[in-house]
Write a structure and sequence with these properties.
Mean pLDDT of chain A: 89
Low-confidence stretches of chain A: 1-5
Mean pLDDT of chain B: 87
Structural class of chain A: mainly alpha
Number of helices of chain A: 12
Oligomer: heterodimer
Order of helices and strands of chain B: HHHEEHHHHHHHHHH
Low-confidence stretches of chain B: none
Number of strands of chain A: 0
Number of strands of chain B: 2
Helix content of chain A: 55-70%
Strand content of chain A: under 5%
Distance between the termini of chain B: 35 Å
Distance between the termini of chain A: 12 Å
Amino acid sequence: MADALPLNRSAPVRHVVGIYWRTWFAQIRSIVEYPADLWVMTSAGAMWNILQFAFLSVLFANVPEVAGWGYHEMLLLSGLLSVAGGSNALLWDGVWSTGSMVIKGDIDYRITRPAPVVLQVGSAHIGMQSIGEVVFGSAMFVYGWIGTGLGLAVLPIGLLALVCAAVIQSGLVTALCAVSFWIKGPMPIFAFLMIDLQRNAMKLPLGIFPVGVRIVTQFLVPVAFVNFVPVAVLTGHLSEWWLIGLPPAALAAILAAVGVYRLGLRSYDSAGH
Amino acid sequence: MASVDVALATIAFKRKIAYKTTWLFSILFGGWALLAGLAVWNHLIGDGEVGGYDWQAMKAYLIIGFLTSTLAWAGSEWDMANRILDGLVAIDLTKPVDFQRARAGEYIGGMIASVPAAVLGTAAAVLIFQPAPPASAFAGLLTAFSLLFIFPLAFGISYLAVLTCFFTQRFLGIQWAKDSMVAFFSGMMIPIALMPTWLEGLAWAMPFVHFTTTPAAIYLGRVDTAGAFGLIAAEAAWALGLWVIARLLWRHLVKKVTIHGG
C-alpha cells in the first residue's frame, strides 16, 4: 500500500514546484543532447496539425458550413485542441507511462522519494512532439482568430481559454492514466480513448452529435471545456455565461487527477504480486 | 512460413489477449471514429451526395474504414518500439532469428487477436446502420481479398515508423504522426474523391490509400473488375516494397546500436 504525499502537509507547494522544475529542466538538458530526436519528434507533432489544416481546407472546399460553423471557427477548435494536447506533452507527458510503470513495478522507486509520486511520474518525460503541436496549433488558432474577426478586446478570454485548456487536458489525462493501477496493461487505454474521442468529435461542432455525446463531453468527461465551449463562446454559438464553467472545470480536472492517482497508489501492490 | 514465425505470432496473440480488458476496449477506438464519421457525413450529405457518395454508400465506406482501422491498429507496434528504445534490440542481434521477420510474426499475431472483435463490431455496425450492399457478389469477394493485404501493409508502415526510434527516445509522438498520415491519406478522415486533384494524386501515390479507399472503391463498384485487380496488385506491390525498404533502412540504422557505449 502506498499513498501520494499530501500537498498541504508533507510536501509544501514551494518544494513541489521546485522538484517539478528541476526534473523538467533536467529533461530539457537531456533533449538538447539529442538533436535528431528533437527534430524527428517536432516534425511528428507538426504533422497532425498540418493534416488537420488540410482536412478542414478540403472539407470547406466542398461544403460552405458545418452546422452553422465556418472554416475559421473550426480552425479555432482544432488549434485550441492542439495547443491543449501539446501543453500536456510539454509539461506533463510522463503520466502516459503510468501503466508501464505499474506493470514493471517502477512506481516502487518513486514511492521511496520525498516528493509526490504523481509529480515525479508526470515530469518524467517531455513529449517533444509538443513543440510542433504547440507551434502549429497556435498558428491555426491565430489564423482562425484573425479570420473570424475576433479583436484584441476578447484576448483575455482567449488567454483564459488557453490556460484552462492545458490544465483540463492534463488533469483528465492524468486521471485516466491512473486507471492503469486497477486495469493493468502496458497502454493507458482510457486516456487513449479520450484522445480518440477528442480527435474525432471535439474538432467538430457538438451540434451535429446526438444529445448523449453532448452530455458526456460537457459534464461527465468535460473535454468540451478544453476547446469547444471557449471557442463557441468566442464565436457567439454559446452564451458567454458558459465561460463561468472554465475555471471550475480546470479545478475539477486537477482534483480528479490527484484523487484518482492517490486512490490508485493505495491499491498499488508492486509487480508480481 | 517457418515454425518460428508461427511461434512468435502465437506468443504475440497470447500476450495480446492476456490483457483482456485492454483488448476488449481497443475496439472502441474505431467505434468513436465510426460514430463521429456517421454523424458528420449524415449531416453533410442529407438526401443528396458528396463526392459521388450518397448516404447509403457513405455508411458502407465508413464501416469498411472501421474494420480496416480496427485491424490495422491492433498490431504490437509498441512492443517493437520498446525493443529499440529499451536496447533489447542488442539482444535480438545475437539471436539466430531475422529481426524483421520476427517482428512481422509478432505484429501479425497481435492483429489476428483483434479479428474476432473487428468482425463482431463490423457485423453489429452493418445490422444497426444497414449500409449499401456490395456492387456485386464478385465485388464483395474481391473486397474481402483486398482486406487481406491490410496485414502486411499495416506491418510495413508501423515497422518503418518504429525504426525512427533509433533516433528518438519516445514513440508516442511518432505513433500519432503515423496514425494521422494513415487517417488522412487513407481517406478515413475525408474521402480522397473530395480532395483537389494534386492532393488526390499524392494520396494514390502512397500506400495509406489501400486502408480504406481501395476496399471501399471495390465494394461500392467505383472501379470495374480490371480496376479492382489493378488496385489489389498495387496493394501487393506496396506490401513487398515496404518490406524491402524497411530491410534496406535496417541495414543502415542498426549501425547506431551501441552496447555499453562500445
